[in-house]
């Protein structure tokens, strides 16, 4: 738990609990403005996830866990011994905030399992302990993944990333950028080429911010520039995060990831997906079953607050796509690495004995 009042967010500060409330770095305004918003009510946290104040699959799960703490406190304050019934509406609000990142549902399910074990007294302390544990476990998992992913890279090489799978998208350190941090520290990375990632620009605004903050060489590029860069022969890996990995190893991630993976395969470049096991959903057999979030087309029709398209222009704005397992060379989790993923290999990983997540 934070011991000093959060003031200026760093990349590790997507979500922080301090005294009696949750603080979220407002990722909608980074890096131009670095500021926290504070939350004391679960419905406000659900809206913060929907509006992408906080985003990034693991960070969404951590935030939802803290949202359940707020929900439990409010339910006990209003319903006393009946808090387990009163909390349900807020749990549903949190679950309805965004559909694709399975970490959200994983975190709520883990908090529900605790709720079932609690008695009718104030659940806040126990819920907070569990949310803090989820947060710390995610941070530790990212460091483990960073090391495992770095071992796969011979280097020195250039890397392409897409979107932001960094510290600010997780409980800290990052998934894809956690591998980048560990591999750079081992002298294996010359430069990171970060796709700007239209329309929400997570790459331009967040990945560039994180890597410059850490002194890691980063070059921003248009999403469409990745192909010619790959043709140049300097890129050894595409490294991305994920929002949900199906039982067969299909990977849902930010829109554009699928195209990158096709380009990588064409150019003999390897694709690494770094994600904690809280991102693996063994209940969906393949990527075809993963719900793909469609966001407001206004996010696409404008850029930086300026209208791009003509009035009345129709747009589609799916914000994730699915990369088939056949185009993924390695899935790196905190429990281990799956090369050339298949359902059998993913099942073996999830059955491995490195504790429940
Ligand atoms: C480790 S973040 C995983 C994932 O989340 C991002 O999506 P969004 O920014 O819409 O929450 C992106 O797909 C990242 O790769």
From TrEMBL:
Pathway given in the UniProt record: Amino-acid biosynthesis; L-methionine biosynthesis via salvage pathway; L-methionine from S-methyl-5-thio-alpha-D-ribose 1-phosphate: step 1/6
Enzyme Commission number, as recorded: 5.3.1.23
Signal peptide annotation: none
Superkingdom, taxonomy of origin: Bacteria
Recorded catalytic activity of this chain's protein: 5-(methylsulfanyl)-alpha-D-ribose 1-phosphate = 5-(methylsulfanyl)-D-ribulose 1-phosphate; 5-deoxy-alpha-D-ribose 1-phosphate = 5-deoxy-D-ribulose 1-phosphate
Site (Transition state stabilizer): 163
Family assignment from sequence similarity: Belongs to the EIF-2B alpha/beta/delta subunits family. MtnA subfamily.
Protein function: Catalyzes the interconversion of methylthioribose-1-phosphate (MTR-1-P) into methylthioribulose-1-phosphate (MTRu-1-P). Also catalyzes the interconversion of 5-deoxyribose 1-phosphate and 5-deoxyribulose 1-phosphate. Part of a bifunctional DHAP-shunt salvage pathway for SAM by-products.
Protein name: Methylthioribose-1-phosphate isomerase
Organism: Thiocystis violascens (strain ATCC 17096 / DSM 198 / 6111) (Chromatium violascens)
The encoding gene: mtnA
């Amino acid at each position: 738990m934070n011991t000093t009042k959060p003031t200026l967010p760093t990349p590790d500060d997507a979500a922080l609990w301090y005294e009696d409330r949750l603080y979220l770095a407002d990722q909608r305004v980074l890096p131009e403005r670095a500021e926290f918003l504070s939350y004391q009510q679960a419905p406000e946290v659900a809206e913060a996830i929907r509006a992408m104040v906080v985003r990034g699959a693991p960070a969404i799960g951590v935030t939802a866990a803290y949202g359940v703490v707020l929900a439990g406190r409010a339910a006990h304050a209003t319903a006393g011994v009946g808090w387990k019934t009163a909390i349900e509406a807020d749990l549903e609000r949190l679950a309805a905030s965004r559909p694709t990142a399975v970490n959200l549902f994983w975190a709520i399910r883990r908090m529900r399992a605790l709720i079932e074990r609690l008695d009718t007294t104030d659940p806040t302390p126990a819920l907070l302990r569990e949310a803090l544990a989820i947060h710390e476990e995610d941070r530790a998992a990212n460091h483990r993944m960073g090391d495992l992913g770095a071992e796969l890279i011979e280097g020195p090489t250039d890397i392409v990333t897409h979107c932001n799978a960094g510290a600010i998208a997780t409980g800290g350190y990052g998934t894809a950028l956690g591998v980048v941090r560990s591999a750079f520290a081992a002298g294996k990375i010359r430069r990171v080429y970060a796709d700007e990632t239209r329309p929400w620009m997570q790459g331009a605004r967040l990945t560039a911010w994180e890597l410059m903050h850490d002194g890691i060489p980063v070059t921003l590029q248009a999403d469409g520039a990745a192909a010619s860069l790959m043709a140049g022969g300097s890129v050894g890996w595409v490294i991305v995060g994920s929002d949900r990995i199906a039982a067969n190893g299909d990977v849902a991630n930010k829109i554009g990831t699928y195209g990158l993976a096709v380009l990588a395969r064409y150019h003999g470049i390897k694709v690494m997906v770094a994600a904690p096991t809280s991102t693996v959903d063994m209940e969906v057999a393949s990527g075809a079953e993963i719900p793909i979030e469609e966001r407001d087309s206004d996010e696409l029709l404008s850029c930086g607050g300026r209208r791009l398209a003509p009035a009345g222009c129709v747009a589609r704005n799916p914000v994730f796509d699915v990369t088939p397992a056949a185009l993924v060379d390695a899935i790196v989790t905190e429990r281990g690495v799956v090369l050339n993923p298949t359902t059998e290999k993913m099942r073996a990983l999830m059955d491995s004995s490195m504790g429940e997540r």
